[in-house]
Amino acid sequence: MALLLFGLVMFLGTHTLATFRQQRATLIGRMGLNGYRGLFSALSAVGLLLIVLGFERYRLDGLIPIWSPPAGMRHVTMLLVWIAFVSLAAAYSPAGKIKGLLRHPMLVGIKAWALGHLLANGDLGGIVLFGAFLLWAGYDRIAIRRRGDKGAPRSAITAGDGVAIAAGTVAYVAMIWAHPYLIGVSVL
Description:
The protein folds into 2 domains: 1-62; 65-188, no CATH class. The protein contains 7 helices and no strands. It has helices spanning 2-17, 21-61, 73-92, 97-102, 105-120, 124-146, 159-182. Helix 1 (2-17) runs antiparallel to helix 2. The two termini are 27 Å apart.
């Protein structure tokens, strides 16, 4: 569990630092934009790796049950995770209704993914992992609002929406297939 916690602190801490604009600007001033991005990327990658290894170690050591999710939560989780994939795809798609409606589709995707997994996983490691991401995404949304970033502009339905739905759905189906191999748990 310690490795998981350290990875979460490193990954989410690095992303939280970016919300402190004055400190971020100071680092960019000292390191240059490319140096800052390189350090940010390296710390994020190491943090993510530690999260994966830490969660794997936690699972191998034995799950610590806290509560038993109701059987029906699987369907809610699957819907929320599909919404997460479409939201994540919308973040990188051309402007469209989905992107404009969500304003910050990446954060909506992270929140939907984390909430869905919190509802379906009642063990300590799952609660820590998914709860940390949900709390961080909530914090980041508040930080964005406080600095006046309105996010993606409102838009009519465009081809970007079709791209987001199609790409998100394809990625979602691929993850359903790959989940047992990558995570060790079948979602079906």
